[in-house]
Amino acid sequence: xxxxxxxxxxxxxxxxxxxxxxxxxxxxxxxxxxxxxxxxxxxxxxxxxxxxxxxxxxxxxxxxxxxxxxxxxxxxxxxxxxxxxxxxxxxxxxxxxxxxxxxxxxxxxxxxxxxxxxxxxxxxxxxxxxxxxxxxxxxxxxxxxxxxxxxxxxxxxxxxxxxxxxxxxxxxxxxxxxxxxxxxxxxxxxxxxxxxxxxxxxxxxxxxxxxxxxxxxxxxxxxxxxxxxxxxxxxxxxxxxxxxxxxxxxxxxxxxxxxxxxxxxxxxxxxxxxxxxxxxxxxxxxxxxxxxxxxxxxxxxxxxxxxxxxxxxxxxxxxxxxx
Amino acid sequence: xxxxxxxxxxxxxxxxxxxxxxxxxxxxxxxxxxxxxxxxxxxxxxxxxxxxxxxxxxxxxxxxxxxxxxxxxxxxxxxxxxxxxxxxxxxxxxxxxxxxxxxxxxxxxxxxxxxxxxxxxxxxxxxxxxxxxxxxxxxxxxxxxxxxxxxxxxxxxxxxxxxxxxxxxxxxxxxxx
Lengths: 323, 177
Known about the structure:
The complex is a heterodimer of chains A (323) and B (177).
Chain A: H1 3-16, E1 44-59, E2 65-66, E3 72-86, E4 91-106, E5 109-116, E6 119-126, E7 133-134, E8 146-155, E9 178-189, E10 192-203, E11 206-211, E12 214-222, E13 226-238, E14 244-256, E15 260-261, E16 264-265, E17 271-283, E18 289-297, E19 305-306, E20 308-322
Parallel strand pairs in A: 7-9
Antiparallel strand pairs in A: 1-2, 1-3, 1-20, 3-4, 4-5, 4-6, 6-8, 8-9, 9-10, 10-13, 11-12, 12-15, 13-14, 14-17, 15-16, 17-18, 17-19, 18-20
Chain B: H1 3-17, H2 19-22, E1 50-53, E2 58-60, H3 61-66, E3 70-76, H4 80-94, E4 100-106, H5 112-121, E5 128-131, H6 136-141, E6 147-152, E7 157-162, H7 167-174
Parallel strand pairs in B: 3-4, 4-5
Antiparallel strand pairs in B: 1-2, 1-5, 3-6, 6-7
């Protein structure tokens, strides 16, 4: 078994890797939201996290869970660097860039590849002026959540199957531009917190003239529209020194419709995945430093995904907020 | 560090290594192929090989194409992409072309036993799977995940490319003599 074959295995993961980077924070700080969003009244934030995603089987097009071939062990590591910057009282922008390592052991043979992943640039509008976190609900307006409206452009900076790469399998990105419209609702009534994040993305069509290092008859390809829904709930525990620990459980639903080739629907594409995650975040009293650890889990049974690898991801991250 | 500097670094990193995706090309760069000689490109004479199937029978390519309307070789590593291709191929083409021999080439699992295990686990017990333990077929045909080869009954390669949406395979199969 040669290295080319081994690297191919990780291509699968890299193609579909949709890093759920662990970011801070909520509108009041402290760390609960699932997007790189600045807390109110802060000027900037740096976020660094490390993901370890292990692959364990996949769901086929019918939604049936299928085990990996015997003796396979596929792992992807990612270091995600993000920065958010406040432009005005209600506007902020952010950028993220992952670096990806693919690590595989297959029948006792090791293979490692690495490269930059797909970058993303976002702009967010905060539809509120005052912090929406309350300790007690005294009036109906206290129930109004913090609402963010955003747009994200994903740039194909990663190595895709359509790149001119030596072995064609060092894939770290999908190879397409994508524009997402985002809505994030975040409400904290101490010590409880809840968020709802909705995202709808459209890929841009692109020409393809090579696949996996082989030149092919040029054609136009487009991936299907992408929907992501994330619902989370959390509880904050304040320590004696007023630092806090926040425990969050989240459910995410991801669906990508069938893509097209030269305008025709491609029946072999389209993906879906359900996942659950648990996060614990430690925040200093001033909310300027947040350390997080998260475990993202997929249920490896029929019906919890389609045409998608089943993975578990452990993430550790740290954020620093600039006031 | 200012936000502008960070964005600039990101863009430089991206532009430095990823031009193919940021500015994808639509030009046809396929090399010129000399037909009629031994090779894996369309119009060339298909190199022969013999592999053991997961049911412990031996299949020689030249024997297969000379006794069928043609042979389809599909290279699998039992991944989600391969599964979607194989599922589509089974439902769309295999039943409709009974005189074409469809051979699934497992080039990753490394043994007949493991190939059979992956085959059964994936729900493809009914297909003919060849265990390419030494990557003989993979090297002869420059195969990788999803590579689909069609060889006609005269032993001439009629297709060698990724399965993609399967439409090219349909065109080639319908054009077989």
